[in-house]
Amino acid sequence: MTTTTSSSSSSSGSVSGRNGSIVTGRRYESRINNNSGELSGSNETSPTVSTRILKPGQIRSEPNIPVSSPSVNVLPTGNICSSGKILKTGMAVNRSSRPDVLGSRSGNYGHGSIMRGSGMGIGHITASKGGTFDHNNTMGKAMEPDEVKRIGNEMYKKGQFLEALSLYDKAIALSPGIAAYRSNRAAALTALGRLGEAVKECEEAVKLDPNYWRAHQRLASLLLRVGQVENARKHLCLLGQPQDRTELQKLQAVEKHLCKCTDARRIRDWKSALRETDAAIASGADFSPQLFMCRVEALLKLHQLDDAESSLSVVPKLESCTNSCSQTKFFGMFSEAYLFFVQAQIEMALGRFENAVTAAEKAEQIDPRNVEVAVMLNNVKLVARARARGNDLFKSERFTEACSAYGDGLRLDPSNSILYCNRAACWFKLGRWEHSVEDCDQALSIQPNYIKALLRRAASNSKLERWADAVQDYEVLRRELPDDNKISESLFQAQVALKKSHGDFGEEACSIKQFRAAISLPGTFLPLHSPKFKLSSFLPSRIPS
């Protein structure tokens, strides 16, 4: 049996549940059951011996079952007693009522076993003045795994979850067959936001003791948080065990909103899908990568690309994925495939076409039989190809053909702001500025702060002598890029042209004084710092003396 490591480090990566970084979750609220030493939730019930059916050779999970010391301690030469004196072979030893030696519950210890009071035990755990524990102190007393676990529980109650995790690791290393140690370790991992590892630990606890109700309950709660409703139900609704009404109500609420979200997505009602997704998360599935990615997909379909992109930063990352989770279906596809399915869409919308193809291919590898995944992969490849062809044609100054290539991509992905902006550049080169403005409008309706689209629309409006519209776009650009001299010059030129069109100056200007008065009006910006600016080019050609 493999022991899970207790490292708390994580790496940032893709949206995938396999490689993603960890998003710290809310502190897992739980209390310590002082009878058994098991970390339990507020509504867990303590399993009794009568409810546990042990298989032949199985170790009972109750962590505090008294361990009897053997009637005769075999003490080879070199053993040290509590007084510090060296015992001779056969010397009688007074036994304490509690186990003193950290071992495997056997009275026969080999040469050099260290008795309570003088030597080093496995783990070297001692209390310090600050309430923490020194794992390396060579004067720490030797302890049984239950004692190690008990100290771990104390650390957990103090909120020192990493220390608690380390102690549970030691207890598991000493007695790997105790289900309660695995369940406690899962609680510490949950408090650290490492829910994927916590799920694995609970699953291991259930394997060790299938009748361990607390482990089933904790596993159900974790599975519900990560959005695995059906798997959570299997562990929450066990025959012969009391049901946790609070968790059951949460499960039913999440399930209801998830069903409504599925229906809304099927008919492309993205506003309803977004609303039901948020409700499912609020109801208890607060660590589900799939539900958070559903938010991203809905925002993307609603042409809220900036919000969709920012929502990616709060998608929970499961550091590991169990087989039971990876095989769960979400919107008809494997749950992990859905993560890459949405990632491919957002990458393409942001103009990262190669990344989009890679993500789509990963989704297809995970769920090769899903029709929706297959269609999306084909479309992503075709759109990426159309964009690459359009770029090559544009560089070759074959602008009409480039327009056609970008149009092919837009027929497959009609919400791609990048393709609209690229086609607008072609229209501008062809002198078809009206079409350029229309494509820029489309791009900006999807991505309102798209700088390139704003620049091209402002330039096209200037060509069409729509000075008010040009000034409006250039003012937005100047706020976004205050140090860009070219934008400052273009803004000034558009402002001067707008004032000329209103008759504020120009042929009617009769003096430098009148010109200065005109350009000092609110909203007028004079780029005197620009080396290309020449005041004479904006003055009237003939000014009476």
From TrEMBL:
<keyword id="KW-0802">TPR repeat</keyword>
<dbReference type="Pfam" id="PF13432">
    <property type="entry name" value="TPR_16"/>
</dbReference>
<protein>
    <submittedName>
        <fullName>Uncharacterized protein</fullName>
    </submittedName>
</protein>
<dbReference type="InterPro" id="IPR044534">
    <property type="entry name" value="TTL1-4"/>
</dbReference>
<feature type="repeat" description="TPR">
    <location>
        <begin position="145"/>
        <end position="178"/>
    </location>
</feature>
<feature type="compositionally biased region" description="Low complexity">
    <location>
        <begin position="1"/>
        <end position="21"/>
    </location>
</feature>
<dbReference type="InterPro" id="IPR019734">
    <property type="entry name" value="TPR_rpt"/>
</dbReference>
<dbReference type="Pfam" id="PF00515">
    <property type="entry name" value="TPR_1"/>
</dbReference>
<feature type="region of interest" description="Disordered">
    <location>
        <begin position="1"/>
        <end position="50"/>
    </location>
</feature>
<dbReference type="Pfam" id="PF13181">
    <property type="entry name" value="TPR_8"/>
</dbReference>
<feature type="repeat" description="TPR">
    <location>
        <begin position="337"/>
        <end position="370"/>
    </location>
</feature>
<feature type="compositionally biased region" description="Low complexity">
    <location>
        <begin position="33"/>
        <end position="46"/>
    </location>
</feature>
<dbReference type="InterPro" id="IPR011990">
    <property type="entry name" value="TPR-like_helical_dom_sf"/>
</dbReference>
<dbReference type="GO" id="GO:0005737">
    <property type="term" value="C:cytoplasm"/>
</dbReference>
